[in-house]
Structure formats: C-alpha cells, structure tokens
Specification:
Order of helices and strands: EEEEEEEEEEEHE
Radius of gyration: 14 Å
Length: 142
C-alpha cells in the first residue's frame, strides 16, 4: 500500500473492529497502548512494517483473536507468556524480528494452533511436544 508513519492512538477508539490488516507498509514506532481497546479483533496483521519495541502484554487480552501476524518488523524482547491466553489462535507468525530468550511454554495453551512461524529470531528452547498432539496437523518453522 505504501502508507507511512506511526499508528495513531485514535485507532483504539474503533472498538468494533474484528479485522485489522495493515501489512506491507512503512509504519514504524511502538504500538500505542490505545490498541488494547480492540477486544473484538479476530485477525490482526501488522506484518512487514518497521514497528519496534516489545510485544505489549495487553495482546494477551485479545481473547477472540484467531490470527496474529507480526512478521518482518523490528520487535525485540521476549515472546510473552500472555500470548498463551489466546486460546482461539490458529495462526501465529512472529518470524524475522529481534525476539530473544526462551520460547514460552505457554504456547502449549494454544490448542487451536495450526501455523506457528518463529524463524529468524534469536530464540532458544523448544516448543512443548504437547502442541503437536493437540492438532491433527500443524505447520511450523523455527
């Protein structure tokens, strides 16, 4: 699309949103806390931008979320265990960022997960074996 700039806090006022896809643009900066108001989201795609900072802990309150794409940004820090609260999540794509540390064991709570992409980060540890027995097929890249 070629959109540029930062995400404005006013976007958090659109609490009715179920689908937010702004991938493949030139957005940058940290994610504003006002986005925590988007509790009806089922699909969130911020992939291929230049967002930075850590994944906010309030992402764990998006309990309706079925897909989360944060790939190809400049996110850093650890992958928070609060993502394990997203029990409806089917797709989690965090590849090509600057995440470090252990893969959180809380991913074993993602019983509907079908796609997990974590490659091109600096992660260590392992994905709990139980995640593979929850789904008849899961596609993953580490």
């Amino acid at each position: 699309m070629g959109l540029t700039g930062t995400i404005q806090p006013h976007l958090g006022n659109l609490s009715f949103l179920a689908w937010l896809d702004i991938r493949h643009n030139n957005f940058h900066g940290p994610l504003p806390v006002d986005l925590a108001n988007l509790r009806r989201l089922k699909h969130l795609n911020f992939g291929n931008n230049s967002f930075c900072g850590e994944i906010p802990s309030w992402f764990g309150s998006f309990t309706k979320l079925q897909s989360l794409f944060l790939f190809s940004n400049n996110f850093t820090g650890v992958i928070l265990s609060t993502l394990g609260n997203l029990s409806k999540l089917e797709m989690l794509s965090l590849y090509h960022n600057g995440f470090k540390g252990q893969i959180p064991t809380a991913v074993e709570n993602l019983s509907n997960l079908k796609y997990l992409y974590l490659q091109n980060n600096q992660l260590s540890g392992y994905v709990p074996f139980s995640i593979f027995s929850m789904s008849s097929s899961i596609e993953y890249w580490f």
